[in-house]
Amino acid sequence: MITMLEACGLRKTFTLHNQNGVVLNVLDHVDLDLAAGEMVVLKGPSGAGKSTLLRILYGNYKPVAGAVRLRHDGEMVDIVGARTSRVLDIRRRTLSFVSQFLRVIPRVATLDIVKDQMLTRGIGDAEATERAAAMLTRLNLPEQMWGLAPATFSGGEQQRVNIARSFVAPTPLLLLDEPTASLDPVNRDVVVELIETTRKAGSAMVGIFHDDAVSSRIATRVMQLSPRKAV
Amino acid sequence: MTPASQHDPDYNYAYLDEATKRMLRRCLLKAIAIPGYQVPFASREMPLARGWGTGGIQITAAIIGPADTLKVIDQGADDTTNAVSIRHFFARVTAVATTEETTKASLIQTRHRIPEEPLRDGQILVYQVPLPEPLRKLIPSESETRKIHAWAEYGPIYVRLYEDIAQYGHVTSTYSHPILVNDRYIASPTPIPKFDNPKMHMSPALQLFGAGREKRLYAIPPYTKVKSLDFEDYPFALQRWDEPCALCGSTSSYLDEVIINDANERMFVCSDTHYCETRRAEGHEGPQLAKAQSVRLTGCAP
Amino acid sequence: MIEEAPLLRAQNVTRLYGGRVGCRDISFSLWPGEVLGVVGESGSGKTTLLRSLAGFEPPDEGAIHFRHGTEEHDIYALDEASRRAMMRTEWGMVHQNPRDGLRLDVSAGGNIGESLMARGDRHYGKMRARITDWLQRVEIDSSRIDDSPQSFSGGMQQRLQIARVLVAEPRLVFMDEPTGGLDVSVQARLLDLLRVLVRDLHLAAIIVTHDLAVARLLTDRLIVMKDGHIIEEGLTDQILDDPHHAYTQLLTSAVLSA
């Protein structure tokens, strides 16, 4: 079993300087280990810090204490406090974050969005185009849409563009924040299948899924989080 | 040729006081030592307005001596007002011999032409320069152009050539085509036609340039490399005329277009009047010589 | 992918205007291929810092080191000629107002060509081909090559300026509010263009902006400035999503959706 991620002693508070300095205590002493081929689903009521944990694992939020070591280029690197260029390199090749929202530069065509990460990683244009096209087809996004910018797409369509972008050349570590949230049953099944295939191919994943049916289908392990009080 | 006589005793020799002439000579020595480099000098008030050749006149005044023979040309002509006035001026304040013959002159002051007859060792050519800075149109700042010269950052000057080729298919400038002196400084050849540019290269004569209004002088010592700027695939090219000089039949000289009547008739004649007259005296005849003589366009009849 | 030695190092850079502080005690490193954003309100010292970094104004204290090959040079300890040579070849500046970075009396092609001629190109045909290529890269119709930039729209002028800078193949580009005076749709196109060019050319960039949306789309890392100081720095998304300093929290919350 290859350990892909070790998070230990994570503690996170938010200090709201502009709201009378309120301090929100969100996570305390959280540990998480993750091996290749695993899918850990985070559970807990709203406010338990599921999203916060996911964002800390991605380096998006900075924990007050603790470390997030993940396997990058064969060695364990702590993403907390790593140099920016190192974090970006990790995100380019090892770690990706899949949310239900598509955040892109307006006016960029769908196909180009899906190709972008592959081009950044040095995959040739022809191959990138081919793989992107296959992925978009699989997610039931018709070819007429590929040349358009997703700004005018429906929520579900944008979400699928986002999934296509993340799963077209998946990284060894994936963090999923409700990627199936507003999909219709057909497309939800496609995405679930995509997640399963990717996991079985060896990617390690941590995810948040509100749909219990989905999470029970794909989870290899469940991690329970409980809310903390403000201090 | 008018022989030397006595100079006007009311003026110091060559008009300028001795201290000014010394200052000018020091600046000229520096200019000769750094070919193409613009040397600032304390330009004096002259008895004619700045912009009328005061830079050239001051240089001539600083270097002229009783043994000199002076020729003055304006656009190649010895007989135009400016040339005649400056020649008279020096005749009066120095009493040197004057001449229209290029080969007999030891000192030639010129506005915008180099004589057709090749210059020789020992001659000095003094140019009147209106705008000494070849980069000025592109770069208004004097401190910036000085830095550009100092470090030979000469990229921007090629923009002008680029623009010409882009807009017209060839370099359209016919005069004042910038030159690279001694592989180092880019200088303005003054508004001489670019036809004359090759004559500057390895010239046996000393070439001195004076800009009175802009207070700069510079020099090209004898036998100095002078290259006209160009692109590798658009080499520097001279303008050509389809016809010979209408008066003397020369096919190798720089020609001026002259409109001869209201019926739109014109002729092309040598801009170097002395050269043209000499050739006619030798018996060369252009296609319209007879006609020109009939309407007295040839100046003094040969 | 990211090389180990920094391309540029600012060390305690301080620039004063009389008694007033332009920027004080600024230190950071920039790695090859990295895009750094400098954000903060007007008057927070962003442009002052940029001008010092780009070689225009020496800092009153501190030093700016630029790596050339394996050697690091303190750019203000170099003689002016060498510094100007580096400014022509190693880095370029994209001004907020394209009029500051273009020659408006010279054709579009001439503007791009000047950068080539400055580095010694003397072959018209080859330059012409490169210019045409660059016009296409910045999405300007190559039939406009001989037109005056004065006949261009603001967005086209800005793209022309970018081509003029990038044709010299710098390793680092400074941009001062590159999308400043443009309307939103033109901005979006320019942002995408910049993003693609930065990726394809493996450029490092320092972008001064007060627009957090621009910062999020273009930059890898952010420096937040206030009153001439750096008050927070880190990964762009971390600064924008999890701001720690009171001022950064105020800045991010003042934006509807960055």
Would you write up a description of this structure?
The longest helix of chain A has 16 residues, at 185-200. Helices cover 35% and strands 27% of the residues of chain A. By secondary structure, chain A is an alpha/beta fold. The model of chain A has no long low-confidence stretch (mean pLDDT 90). Chain A has helices at residues 50-58, 84-93, 110-120, 125-138, 155-167, 185-200, 212-218, and strands spanning 3-16, 22-35, 39-43, 65-72, 75-78, 95-98, 173-177, 204-208, 221-224. Chain A is globular, with a radius of gyration of 18 Å. Chain A has a five-stranded parallel β-sheet with strand order 6-7-8-3-9, with helices on both faces. Chain B has 302 residues and is α/β, with parallel strands linked by helices. Chain B has two domains: 18-134 and 176-228, Rossmann fold, CATH 3.40.50; 240-302, no CATH class. Chain B has helices at 18-33, 54-63, 81-94, 142-150, 157-168, 197-200, 273-281, 289-294, and strands at residues 39-40, 69-74, 97-98, 107-111, 124-128, 179-181, 185-187, 206-211, 216-220, 226-228, 255-259, 266-270. Chain B has a seven-stranded mixed β-sheet with strand order 1-9-8-5-4-2-3. Chain B has a three-stranded antiparallel β-sheet with strand order 7-6-10. Chain B is globular and about 55 Å long. The mean pLDDT of chain B is 92. Chain C has 258 residues and is an alpha/beta fold. Chain C is 38% helix and 25% strand. Chain C contains ten helices and ten strands. In chain C, helix 4 crosses helix 5 (124-137). The A-C interface holds A 14-18, 55, 59-62, 84-89, 92, 105-108, 119-120 and C 1-2, 31, 33-34, 185, 188-189, 191-192, 195, 199, 217, 220-221, 234-235, 237-238, 241-242, 244-246, 249-250, 253.
Could you name the key traits of this structure?
heterotrimer, A: 231 residues, alpha/beta, five-stranded parallel β-sheet, four-stranded antiparallel β-sheet, 9 strands, globular, B: 302 residues, Rossmann fold, 2 domains, seven-stranded mixed β-sheet, three-stranded antiparallel β-sheet, 12 strands, 26% helix
